[in-house]
Specification:
Layout lengths: L5 E10 L3 E6 L2 E5 L4 E7 L2 E8 L2 E6 L2 E3 L2 E3 L2 E6 L3 E4 L9 E3 L2 H6 L5 H15 L3 H8 L7 E7 L5 E7 L2 E6 L2 E6 L2 E6 L2 E6 L2 E6 L1 H12 L2
Antiparallel strand pairs: 1-4, 1-11, 2-3, 3-6, 4-5, 5-10, 6-9, 7-8, 10-12, 12-13, 13-14, 14-15, 15-16, 16-17, 17-18
């Protein structure tokens, strides 16, 4: 898939209730009532949203090893536009068409300013072909989610989830979970945990592993 296959819908929306966009035993992504939203279309079919308002990202990115706990939790307020690819279940479709007051509430002069930011976020997500091909190919079911959160370095933190599987990439770490197996890489260390066994490796080689994972996103 490429950026030309995706576009924003012309209808702008506002959430009518607090919503949980993703949740499992390791964390959740939530937004509050009154959050702005615009639907993302793939070949004119709904496939996700850009949201702007108030929300939160919580993620337990801690790996327990024989040498102790490695990593820390992610607790982030979502006040900037962020992207979610993946379909919401029918009971989560709690939107109404937005009005002028909805945009001024979040600091926009008009709806065009919000649309411009949403377009810029979508463009940034597709800037890197490796990221595009890795995260957007294939159909999206109600269980799969891809989130892209702008960070202070001008890049995107990514969260990919499906059931008990997830991948989280940020400037300071890459966290991967599949069921009860986990891997955490950061500058200078790699922690691996699975039932009955855990490994913590520290040293220069770990920096190369970290750079390889992070440059893919």
């Amino acid at each position: 898939m490429s950026k030309r296959d995706y576009r924003l819908d012309s209808k702008l929306l506002t959430t009518t209730a607090d919503m949980t966009l993703w949740k499992n035993t390791r964390g959740n992504v939530e937004i509050t009532r009154g959050t702005l939203a615009v639907e993302v279309l793939l070949d004119d079919q709904p496939c996700g949203y850009v949201f702007q308002g108030s929300g939160s990202l919580l993620l337990d990115a801690i790996v327990e090893t024989e040498s102790g706990a490695v990593g820390n939790s992610v607790e982030r307020a979502l006040t900037e536009p962020f992207l979610m690819l993946g379909r919401l279940e029918d009971e989560q479709q709690q939107f109404q068409e937005s009005g002028t007051e909805d945009f001024t509430k979040w600091g926009f002069e008009n709806q065009d300013e919000f649309v411009g930011k949403a377009e810029g976020l979508l463009d940034k997500f597709f800037e890197r072909s490796t990221c595009r091909n890795r995260h957007t190919d294939g159909p999206w079911g109600t269980e799969a989610r891809v989130f892209a959160f702008p960070n202070s370095q001008g890049r995107l933190d990514l969260l990919l989830t499906k059931g008990s599987r997830l991948v989280y990439t940020a400037p300071d770490r890459v966290f991967v979970m599949k069921g009860d197996k986990m891997v955490l890489t950061s500058r200078g260390s790699v922690a691996v945990s699975r039932p009955g066994k855990s490994v913590l490796v520290e040293g220069n080689c770990c920096s190369h592993v970290y750079e390889h994972w992070h440059d893919c996103c």
